[in-house]
Known about the structure:
- With 310 residues, this protein is mostly helical.
- 55% of the residues lie in helices and 1% in strands.
- It contains 15 helices and 2 strands.
- Strand 1 (2-3) and strand 2 form a beta hairpin.
- It starts with a strand and ends in a 22-residue tail after the last helix.
- 41% of the residues are buried.
Amino acid sequence: MRSHGGHASDRQEALIRAGVTAPRTPLPKSQRTYKFGTTAFMLAIHVGAVFALLPGFWSWQSVVALAVLYWVTVLGVTLGLHRLLAHRSFVAPRWVERTLVLMGTLACQSGPIEWVGLHRHHHKFSDQANDHHDAGRGLWWSHSDWMLHEIPAVQHVERFTGDLQRDPFYRWLDRWFLLLQIPLGAALWWYGERANVHGGGLGLVLWAIPLRLVIVYHVTWLVNSATHAFGYRNFDSPDLSRNCWWVAILSFGEGWHNNHHAHPASARHGLRWFEFDITWQHIKLLRSLGLAKRIREARYVPGAAYVPNS
């Protein structure tokens, strides 16, 4: 357990571990029903991704658009929403912070306030029964099923995001995040038609929006599911977090998840020499440009005991 007031006691640690391994009771009736809007949206996005893979929509321009926007979106999530906004692991000029958050909001994983609030809630109750993507309920639940149901954690978002609620830009993004796909899609359509790309504007749109979103979704969800089930642990943190190398590659370093749960405030997640952290490399680049300061960095010391931190 990480408390903001100091180290957790052995008794608290034991209670947490008991909660992590305890059998889960069935979900209450109010949480068993699928949310129509979210479920329909996810189904539509996945159908669009399948259509994007039809031969008639393939082009090199589509591959490039997907690759560039994958980098933009994943970096926006890992660097902007996660390490900068949720954990304040470094400080950046306002225009840099907002650009990174805007990039992350293109992932369509709700707005920045809700994303940060739910993530902070996850860290407070990681792998406990009230963790909204509790790994104790299985891989499918922690991967994506949780978001298709009503989750009580949403009611606590405001309590966890007082620092963001005061910003009108973040409040606007939180309400209208889906609309960001419209100008992006319009620009892609215009270019595809004007440049006579194979598959036309529709091909570019399908590759750069639904196919990209589905890939980014599942990569992000793997951090909630796979890294709480597969891999190794550098730290004896009181949860199920693991370091999973292949998730780290796909997610730009987020797969070093045990490191992160042991030291959530650290801007650096890959702590050992072989734990390559792409997002950390971007933070070092920002630092060299004078755009990242007060960077919080954990260190791995072989044999050192795990100590909860804030």
